[in-house]
Amino acid sequence: MSNATVSFLGKANNAGDDNALFLKVFSSEVLAAFAKANKMLALTMTRSISQGKSAQFPVIGKAAAAEYHVAGEEIVGQVLQKNEKIITIDDLLISHSFISELDQAKAHFDYRNAYSQEMGEALANKVDQHLLQLVCLAARAAETTSGTGGGSEIVDADALTNATSLIETIFEAAEDLDNNNIPESERFCVVTPNTYYNIVQNDKILNRDFGGGNGVYAEGKVLKAAGIHIVKSNTATTAFTNHSGDSTTGTNNTYNVAAQATAAVVFHKSAVGTVKLKDLKMESEYDIRRQGTLMVGKLAYGHGILRPESAVEITTS
Known about the structure:
- The chain is about 25% helix and about 30% strand.
- By secondary structure, the protein is an alpha+beta fold.
- A hairpin with a 4-residue loop joins strand 7 and strand 8 (about 220).
- Helix 1 packs parallel to helix 3 (about 110-140).
């Protein structure tokens, strides 16, 4: 009786490592989970570098007022205020799991999908948290270049309980951005799920029956207020708390902020920026000493304030 010819599911071209294909699948699943859970990276300025520990973001101020030329007079040019912001790469941010070989054999469910989902979301949530806390800090910061103005804070004591009041405050935030000559496109308002659904149920912003172009009541969606995209973020629930005493180990930028009174942040894409040195990558290795596989997801990013005048914080006190 001859032995069966085994077709290994994880072996590439039926040669080499039995788990080669499994790692690639797992990596793509972590990347997909990260992309799905991450909200803030796409809403901010992002720059990738191939080496180094920091990156420079030039910040150009406003041009002086236009004037009429007097015939015969020499045109010598105007001085534009300018500055730069340096964003430093933080230490390696990792998410990791160790799976026992025996547990893999016993498992009667697709553990890979569950593990990849959790690892991807863990990394995405930390990146989002830092960026949201930075927007709060930007709204409280002084101007980067002379004449551009600093961030704005608006107090709305009823913002978390009265959707009509919050919507009116979002319009006020839009006015602040207008006064700072911030472009009307790429403006965002990030809120917690609880606040988001308060807005959805408000007739002032949403057509309950037909939805129109601004969302649908039946689907629990709202798109804009005052031309500003409304973004629901689970991470905002964590970010909008007191982080003034958080550990700074591993971070080379400032993210700590007392945001327990923050109800929402309104900002333009130029408010904060991200520098990427190493984008999300997966590694996996079988450890014979521990009889299992260690899986690590890692990235090297840094985040910083660019233009405070592009950020508005709505607080309850």
